[in-house]
Design a protein that fits this description.
Strand content: under 5%
Structural class: mainly alpha
Number of domains: 1
CATH class: Mainly Alpha
Oligomer: single chain
CATH topology: Growth Hormone, Chain: A
Largest sheet: 2 strands, antiparallel
Helix content: over 70%
Strand order of the largest sheet: 1-2
Distance between the termini: 30 Å
Length: 487
Amino acid sequence: MSDASAVPPREGHPPGLYMLFFAEMWERFCFYGMRALLTLYMVSEVFSYDDAQATAVYGSYNALIYLTPIAGGILADRLLGYRWAILLGGLLMAVGQFTLVVQQEFYFYAGMAFMVVGNGMFKPNISTLVGRLYPDGDPRRDAGFTIFYIGINVGAFLSTLVCGYFAKSEDWTVGFGIAGVGMLLGLVTFGLGRARLEGHGEPPAPEKLPANLTKVLVGSLALVPLVYLLLSEDAAVRWLLGVAVVVVLGILIITAIREERVMRERMFVLIVLWFFHMMFWMFFEQAGTSLTLFTKRNIDLDLGGWMFPAAWGQFFNPLFILVFGALFTMLWANLGRKGRDPSIPTKFGLALVQLGLGFYVLVWAASGVEDSGLVSILILIFCYLLHTTGELCISPVGLSAVTKLAPKRMTGMVMGAWFLSIAAAHKVAAMIAGETGAAGAEGMTPQETLPIYTDVFWQITLYAVGAGVLIIILGQLFLKRWLHGVN
């Protein structure tokens, strides 16, 4: 086993990064394949949910998807190690995805429950492993996370394109089945790439692994029925999230207070960033609900007689990440070499401003199409372009910040807490999307649904841009100083 503390050459990236790239790519193929189908599946004739019910279930599912990583991170830190946690989580996710191919409500909720539990083991720990490949102070880390993030979006792009196509013909079984195959490919890639990790991610007590693995597996299977019930109980999920936020942020604050000054102030920066990260995702995640339904009802999808699938609206985001991800990697690296790399709070602010402007272009375009109620698909593409450039300023940067700012002994737990911000964001996003629920009433015309969506999108514009400006100001006032050289 190689010395994990040894500083690798500064040229190139650790070989483990590229293995994790492909493993995460296929796992995200599974996740985003389901994401592209989920809302449209629920409002289809299979279940005939109204908009409010569909967005509530979607929000609960995604909230729980990002809530369980807290436990998954702790279990990896203390019992399984990151590698075994990832393998177990991926297996549970594959079971869930193949369960979804049965078009009955019981299997629908059971499949989502397996996905939730499995994701909790997989998601935080593969991100933590990426950070572990780089020693402290390594300037390649942000670029490495951006490369890793490109892998996420290769999977998202391919799955939205492939699985989303079957949403057009409403062949849901094939769509979910293909997503499940993607998860299996991710497991195989990760399982065969152990040597590339160079000893990172192994259990803290290898001799106890069989017993610990059995305990975690039994506990995970016992958790599935509980998640099944929560998915249909909107109020219960809100309560659970509220408790989780209070408890987890309380733990982070207490931990920060007990640390020496530098680590304490870095932890406080992380907590502030947590709130703005949540705000970004609660607006961004309209993509799977209100923006998808807006695309279906108020975007002109007729391209010369061929109808563009509404589910494909979501593929512009990963496509743009593939186009611009490498450019952002080079941008941060070049600015870093010149000592001009924007601070983490500034990058967060730029992300929120661009997100808000993305929604604004929809509002602006809608003001000129009241007669038809249909906005050009080019406007939707530009909206997703701005959302994507915003995402590249916050998501890989945030993941990297956690691995740099959190105490080493609890990186997995803090990474799970970071994903809790996305969990809370998803539930709030569903509540925001619920404000557009009237647009789903039977017989509504595009002219009638258009102002329902744009009124909500205008409010999002104001809050997102305002939050972006605020975090930039806070960064200049004190947050940048509290980073103590971390960038």
